[in-house]
Amino acid sequence: MNQEIKKNSIIRLFNVSKRYNGKFALKDINLDIEQGEFILISGPSGAGKSTLLKVLYLAERVSEGHILIDGMNLARISSSRLPLLRRRFGMVFQDFKLIPNRTVYENVAIVLEAAGEKPDYIRKKVMQVLRTTDMDKKAKALPQTLSGGEQQRVAVARALVGEPSIILADEPTGSLDEKSARAVIDSIMEYHKKGATVLIATHNLHLLENAVRGINIEITEGMIKRTATML
Amino acid sequence: MSHFIKKALTDIRLNRFLNLVTIFTISLSILVASVFLLFFENAGRVIEAWNQGGRVMIYLKDNFTMDMMPELKDRINGLGNIREIIFISKDEALDRLKKEILFNSDFLRTLQENPLPDAFEIKMKSYSSLEEVEAFAQKIKEIEIVEDVEYGQGWLGKFLKIFTLFKITGYAMCSLFFLVALFITSNTVRLAFYSRKIEVEVMRLVGATETFIKAPFYVEGILQGFFGGVLGLVILLITYLMISSGLTQNLSSYIYFDIRFLSINTIILIIFISTFLGWFGCYLSLKQILK
């Protein structure tokens, strides 16, 4: 995967390293991910899975190397263009990152509001996505009144509502029971089938390994230990 | 824009107490500043009225005779800045006095001779300073036949000194209260920002621009400043309505003086300044937090 250059590359990493206080969180990572691929990033806790996702959406800058997203070099991206880059991503986190004093509807709508969409479109689109994640009946609820599984479905709805070309999910099922975790993965998989590139970082492989076709990248101590095709 | 206003209003509603305290603090600062402005405007009108219709009384020595009148008038006119000269003879002055002090008529009747001097009442053109009037009076005093010159130097001098003192105190107090209001506003924005830290983080993650993130805070600051200014003026208006009629009535025995509320231009200026204060407090706070 790191040797051959793919035709429809959407994410490319060249010798990417990330250090915190001199210690490598990522070391010499080379990746070439094609549009529409499903990538599972696995490995033990602290291996560097989350850091890998963070450098992709520029929550962290790399210490060395280069990242290209759809041809854009992240090292050269200006702060004014950063929001445009982030709109290409839909992100799901283990801790949901929902705004506590905003309703389910408002939490999802914020993506489209930030993109400057018109109110009519926002209303229509948000309700549509909430229906696909089965959260439309709780549109007016506040996050703290929802279960963990429901909160994560809201987070997934928020990630999908802007129709991004890439989904980044960092341990999306980490704090969920089996049934809720399955519902979250199903929503993401549905979206992946429409052509989106999906990168999921998890150490909880059993839900995904037999459910999807894709590539499993195993990371240990910040380095790619193994890549395997999941069939 | 309506989106930002809606967001700001929602946040004000959610952090009701904090926002009310801020609006009230701004209103107090505006109130203090407005009280001084109210004083300056009214005192300014008194000075202006005096400048425009200023009166100087020239009292003449006993040896004045009517033959000296034309020459004396010419000399006074020659000093310039005079609109009108009226001669008041000692008999005319006594008649006026008798009319004005009716209850003392017995005392006046017993007078053997008229103690009042002949005088000139001079209505002056506009003057820009008390020093100018003093110089004018000094020149008149130099005329041999002139006994004394009176132009309200006592009360006017004192009034101008108090006015200047109030001006300095006013500037100092206004600056102090504006600084307090600025500090409170910027602190409220800071607290609002920290209470919405997750929201800001999420907005950044979903691709919101810095303008989109900051705008609701600015709108909030502007609204706080605006409502603080309006509230301060409303408090001042109520206080003014309660005390102004009584004060005018009490003062009317001594001087004609009607206290007026702030002019529309000053009201607009105050609201503009308080709104700016809200915005500037927000700007300082966000600049520090988001650097």
Give a quick summary of the entry.
The complex is a heterodimer of chains A (about 230) and B (about 290). With about 230 residues, chain A is α/β, with parallel strands linked by helices.
Order of helices and strands of chain B: HHEHEHHEHEHHHH
Return the average pLDDT of chain A rounded to an integer.
Answer: 89
* Residue windows where pLDDT falls under 50 for at least 5 positions of chain B: none
Query: Which structural class matches the secondary elements of chain B?
Result: alpha+beta
Name the helix and strand elements of chain A from N-terminus to C-terminus, one letter apiece.
EEEHEEHEHHHEHEEE
Estimate nothing, just give the exact number of structural domains of chain A.
Answer: 1
* Biggest protein-protein contact in the assembly: A-B, 25 and 15 residues
Distance from N terminus to C terminus of chain B (CA atoms, Å) equals: 25 Å
The CATH superfamily of chain A turns out to be P-loop containing nucleotide triphosphate hydrolases
Low-confidence stretches of chain A: none
Strand order of the largest sheet of chain A: 6-7-8-3-9-10
- Which fold does the CATH topology of chain A refer to? Rossmann fold
Shape of chain A: globular
- The strand count of chain B comes to 4
Proportion of helical residues of chain A: 25-40%
Extended strand count of chain A: 10
Q: What does the largest sheet of chain B look like?
A: 4 strands, antiparallel
Report the β-strand fraction of chain B as a percent range.
5-15%
What is the mean pLDDT of chain B? 82
The whole-angstrom Rg of chain A is 17 Å
**CATH architecture level-2 label of chain A:** 3-Layer(aba) Sandwich
Describe it for me?
The complex is a heterodimer of chains A (231) and B (291). With 231 residues, chain A is α/β, with parallel strands linked by helices. In chain A, the strands form 2 sheets. Chain A has a 6-stranded mixed beta sheet, with helices on both faces. In chain A, strands 2-1-4-5 form a 4-stranded antiparallel beta sheet, with helices on one face. Chain A has one domain: P-loop containing nucleotide triphosphate hydrolases (Rossmann fold), CATH 3.40.50. Chain A is built from 6 helices and 10 strands, in the order E-E-E-H-E-E-H-E-H-H-H-E-H-E-E-E. Helix content of chain A is 29%, strand content 29%. The radius of gyration of chain A is 17 Å and the shape is globular. Chain B folds into 2 domains: 2-49 and 168-289, no CATH class; 55-150, Alpha-Beta Plaits, CATH 3.30.70.3040. Chain B is of the alpha+beta class and 291 residues long. Chain B has helices at 2-14, 16-52, 69-78, 90-100, 105-109, 130-141, 153-195, 197-205, 210-251, 264-289; strands spanning 55-60, 82-88, 119-124, 146-150. Helix content of chain B is 71%, strand content 8%. The chains are: A alpha/beta (231), B alpha+beta (291). At the A-B interface, helix 2 and helix 3 of A face helix 8 of B.
